[in-house]
Sequence to fold (1004 residues):
Amino acid sequence: MSLSENTPVDLKALVNDVLEAYPEKSRKRRAKHLNVLEAEAKDCGVKSNIKSIPGVMTIRGCAYAGSKGVVWGPIKDMIHISHGPVGCGYYSWSGRRNYYIGDTGIDSWGTMHFTSDFQEKDIVFGGDKKLHKVIEEVNELFPLVNGISIQSECPIGLIGDDIEAVSRLKSAEIGKPVIPVRCEGFRGVSQSLGHHIANDVIRDWVFDKTEPKPGFVSTPYDVTIIGDYNIGGDAWSSRILLEEIGLRVIAQWSGDGTLAELENTPKAKVNLIHCYRSMNYIARHMEEKYNIPWMEYNFFGPSQIAESLRKIAALFDDTIKENAEKVIARYQPMVDAVIAKYRTRLEGKKVMIYVGGLRPRHVADAYHDLGMEIIGTGYEFAHNDDYQRTAHYVKEGTLIYDDVTAFELEKFVEALRPDLVASGIKEKYVFQKMGLPFRQMHSWDYSGPYHGYDGFAIFARDMDLAINNPVWGVMKAPF
Amino acid sequence: MSDKEVSQSAVSQSADKVLDHFTLFRQPEYKAMFERKKAEFEYGHSDEEVARVAEWTKTEEYKAKNFAREAVVINPTKACQPIGAMFAAQGFEGTLPLVHGSQGCVAYYRTHLTRHFKEPNSAVSSSMTEDAAVFGGLNNMIDGLANAYSLYKPKMIAVLTTCMAEVIGDDLQGFIANAKTKDSVPADFPVPYAHTPAFVGSHIVGYDNMIKGVLSYFWGASEKYDTPKNETINLIPGFDGFAVGNNRELKKIAGQFGINLQILSDVSDNFDTPMDGEYRMYDGGTKIEDVKAAVHSKATISMQEYNTPQTLQFIKEKGQEVAKFNYPMGVTATDELIVKLAELSGKAVPDSLRLERGRLVDAIADSHTHLHGKRFAVYGDPDFCLGMTRFLLELGAEPVHILSTSGSKKWEKQVQKVLDGSPFGASGKAYGGKDLWHLRSLIFTDKVDYLIGNSYGKYLERDTKVPLIRLTYPIFDRHHHHRYPTWGYQGALNVLVRILDRIFDDIDANTNTVGQTDYSFDLVR
Fold:
């Protein structure tokens, strides 16, 4: 029995009902972030990238999370120092499953937590002296480290430390890039500014201060993967397709990436960007400065994968175009078999999505490929250009919620009773308690990869195992 | 590359047997891809150089350098104050923590606790940004309290701080009073608070601050007075990943005694709600009426000394007898708790507990051969380390490296005293203020048989091949152990079995090569 076989819900009335619970001032502010998608809409009709309201239980994180957790953290051959008190680095330690190949602790440090562990005296007297020492110790204990980044936590910007000066000095001393990132958590309104700051720092402290590796030989087929954090191996199941059509991926940003790959990126013929929200800044910069075109692609679900492969191939010669067709054809039997197996089990199932800055639209067609329907979607930290892009993916009548509060999401889900909620760890158990199948769509619920053709099979299996698990059937006691 | 032919062979992935990350990336096409990426694009170090450095990190020379560190902390066993305060607050009935400061912190705390308990975790932030950094967060407090109160209908909002609010010096008492005059919440609505700077102490200090904050709110702040006392005994569990199982076990023990036990901050129901179609944002917890009444209790027991120094001092000033333990586990530590309960309550130890004790000792006797002389490294919070060390000594095992990033000199001495009390403690040493990268050096240079700690230790297990037993927070990669107690005689039995299971699994894994080692692959052990 599908839980979604309810009478249609008047969504506008639902939104108004939910808003009723707020004090007036907050109600007015929240009203701008909630909407029902209208026909022919150019965007989703919601305001975005605005400060969260205090006390409402926003699901958002901070700029540090956007820089250390997302952009910089996965660069595997560098050590990323969480500069400030111990907590930020502790909570973000190994949390995101940015897979990498390397000898952890020796030539890679992705699943380790380095912190300057600020004490009261560091707040009072400043932490620059300590930072000097931290960098020296790191370089001595980990001699194969190729660079160090300083990920600022809130106090750094408040106490007036000059981490740039320390970085310049220590970089000269140790002969390796030392890169200061001003990603204090109070900056901006969400993770998003952290992405932007991290991008700008790569521009200023990598591109402007280092060179592509000597001896790097370009080919006409050099591309990069920008904005893939290799969660559960996503960048790998994407890279393999690009290689199979005859392209050469010279850099991965930043999942399983290295500093050398960042440095060599200006040699690319085209930058291919998956997570537009977190890395469009650097792509735009490279377009301006190095004349490198960039293109957004979508490797979720076979429809989008084929379309993206063709669009990418269209930028190259006929061989690549022919290869793209051959690769699409080669995977088609497996894709057909996956759809044949799972579509019957998932057809018509309704999904509500709430994730970060890309997936609330990017995964939509993967669900559609399985015959599923998106009835609500929203972003933690999208901007207006994301909502413009979203209108293309979802249909009229879809509920849109920006920076949704725990209260709103709970009420919306309760009223709409979707067959699946696709969101994050903080939401997971709330909806499972309500008896609703759930998949974490940040971490792939510890599964993955979900990108590429290989990933689609896993995606389909996982949606099926969530929705069709027998546990939902025993929820109600017979007494 | 463009001259490369597109493969015509069938793909590895299949609908029949879906390959996910566990096996997909072991397929030849992926392995070849990893090799190409490494060789052509990563500009890493040679395999020989990596192997050389890897060996060097296992040496005494490296250990000396590692222990000479003064500034960088690597893989610590501590979090920051607010998560401890949040945990403490969530153990009170209908209580919503409001974390005053940057909002990302709250996302982190909720995530961390949720990943361990596999439960929802509710807390709000006052979402301070750059303007609040300049002007202070008063308006954030006013709006935050009003919104949280309207939306989430708590019975109490417990306010704590992130380091941002602490650095700029926001005054919680004044802000909350101000918010009440602005009608954010009713004047009589309880809003206790604790300043919890992340740059002082760790999560266990945050726990202490919040419990003291809540008690001060309901009991009155500083004046010393003797209130009329009743027969109730208060108990403060401390920050405990096994709180769900442990608090229930404590209540069971109190029931056996017939003691009216008042747990102050009891998360056991809030962090273990049923799945029956209804989401309970709040469940269980110490009732506010009971918190108020607890000032009249005759005594308060702290299960974790290092989680409660200020709180116990405060309670003592209210005229109560106080007793403190260090995460009591095992036979004699549990005996001490039971004796203390008997002494404080004036009740005889019930026969049922005698029986439980006897069964525990019986189980230890049955299994002692597999524990005797086994060498262990233990890490975690100071109290956990003390409790675990005592239990290991009692089992005839040898605690060798005992490490806590939150551990002080005083704690080191305390551990040493425990070690000195047993011949099995002769090779043991406590390392306060050290981290898991120090422990890596210790294990490589002075090997142990088993490692006891939390999920973060799995990287040590991978590097050193010393099997890990997960017995303290956080446990992210094993499910539901926190639902079983580690305290009481029953809890000690659980801990014993967890250790034994790992030992037996390890023995089997090391004896299962057919025709070579499997003569010892015994059916009966």
